[in-house]
User: What shape does this take?
Amino acid sequence: MDVRSCPVCSTTFGPDWSTLSRLAAGGEPVATHVCPECTLAWTGRPQFRVDTCYRSRVWSRDAGGLLESGDGRVTAGPPEHRADLAAARVSDLRRAFAAVRTRRRVRVLQVGLSAGPVVHEAGRGLRVNAMALEPWAPWANAARAHATEVHQQTLESWRRRGMFDVIVEHDLLPHLCEPLQHLRTIAGRLAPAGVALIEVPNLLRAAGLSDEEVLSTARPFWFTPRALVTACKRAGLTPFHLAADERLRVLCRVAPPLAMTVPGVLASEVVDVVRGNDTRLLLKRALFRTGATPSALQMAAIVHARCTRRAVRADLAIEIATACERTSNFEAAAHWLEVSMLDRPDPEVAQTLATLELLRRRVRSLWLDAPAANDPMPSGTARLAS
Ligand SMILES: [Zn+2]
Assistant: This one.
């Protein structure tokens, strides 16, 4: 076994690390393990140079903006979806600006431009001095077209003196071989009342099949909220705001480093969540391909019955209900929604169930009121007579 340790909490790699997957994207035989202490997920052996790590972002999709469609495919979504994501990032940055305590112009540094020059948009109407670091020439040039000052370097190699009131970065940390050192460098560049906004994709909400579309040596680390907050605290950044959906965002201030691991989800639970999502997605794709035929529903019921985790079972039941609804099998759809509620009561599902019940009643009354064309009984005549 390799003697190496977690780059966030220094726990030595060993048999107590959970194996999340033995394969990575593209069928690469590279395993992903989850640290038992801080729950950082680690694919392969990230022992590259820093500039190579920065370059690996170019081959990674923007995980924060991926969308799962009705057939289970994962895409970047339509232009409106991408516009919503850009607006959400501007809103995050405005929250950081609002938390800065300074009377001077706000000095802003964006590290990496994979998400585009968001500072330009967020700083509209504010007194902001912005600059960016981006070693990848196409992204650097695109930002310069928006009149952003860009230095074509990594944060680690940048020698210019200066402190900043706001430092922001998107999905850079998971690509770096030394994420903790990177956060320490950010802490060293942050003014005493300044704010760092760090965004990374959330492993617990990652879209796609883990070993085909999520885990990759191009992005060797995936963070949970627990791993990200732990990394920040150990690097001398104290988070005072955390938002977690498909993207994890923390707003931090400089503080003395704390050699601690914050409480939160366990490594075994991380594995359950990721594998549960894989099962759900495989079932969703299979049901979309075959339709909710009796044999497909029988297979789906077996998958559901074998699942031991309640949250995953609830998700599976909802996928089965959706497939039934698609073929107008409202009776079966209602049944599976009810089954999902046994594992996880959910007001939205209850609302859908109520709507479905109305629909079922309407369909039933239509059948009762309108005689079938091949009805052998002269019920139409009888009704007309009555
Ligand atoms: Zn760790």
